[in-house]
Amino acid sequence: MAKLLLNLRNVLDDEIADVRAMLETHKIEFYETQPSRWGISYGGIWITHDGDIAEAKRLMVDYQQQRQTRVRAEYAAAKRDGTAETFGQVLREQPGRVALTVLAIVVLLGLVALPVLLLRG
């Protein structure tokens, strides 16, 4: 019976490609399911044979540790170089998006506080 190795929700395309390549390199059979049209299911990478599941999970843990180390090093280098995205840059480049986000936060906080205010008064 097939077993889910990786849910593709919020997974970057390069990471999906890396996982596919890793599984193909180690000759582990897998298949992918595509995301549903309405976003109910995000798709996934499934291991076909039960005997390969333990090895695939071990490889996945190793891959994720390596990726974490690499991405953190890239981010630290970008911060040192001054190329990492900051809040100030986002505010300058997309002021409307920041304003709408702040407005949405205020509205949601108001909705959360509304029952308390109604019960007190």
Q: How would you sum up this structure, described in words?
A:
Keywords: Membrane, Transmembrane, Transmembrane helix. This is DUF6164 family protein. It comes from Lysobacter koreensis. The chain crosses the membrane at residues 98-119. By secondary structure, the chain is mainly α. It has 2 domains: 3-84; 87-121. The chain has 4 helices and 3 strands, in the order E-H-E-E-H-H-H. Helix 3 (87-93) crosses helix 4 (95-120). The longest helix has 29 residues, at 53-81. The model has no long low-confidence stretch (mean pLDDT 94).
Strand percentage: 5-15%
Give the averaged pLDDT, no decimals.
94
Main pleated sheet: 3 strands, antiparallel
What's the total number of strands? Answer: 3
Task: State the distance separating the first and last CA atoms.
Answer: 59 Å
Which spans of ≥5 residues are poorly predicted at pLDDT below 50?
A: none
From N to C, what is the helix and strand string? EHEEHHH
Computed Rg: 22 Å
What is the number of helical segments per DSSP (H or I, 4+ residues)? 4
Structural class: mainly alpha
Shape: extended
Helix content: 55-70%
Which sequence of strands runs across the widest sheet? 1-3-2
| Structural domain tally | 2
Organism: Lysobacter koreensis
Protein name: DUF6164 family protein
Transmembrane segments: 98-119
Keywords: Membrane, Transmembrane, Transmembrane helix
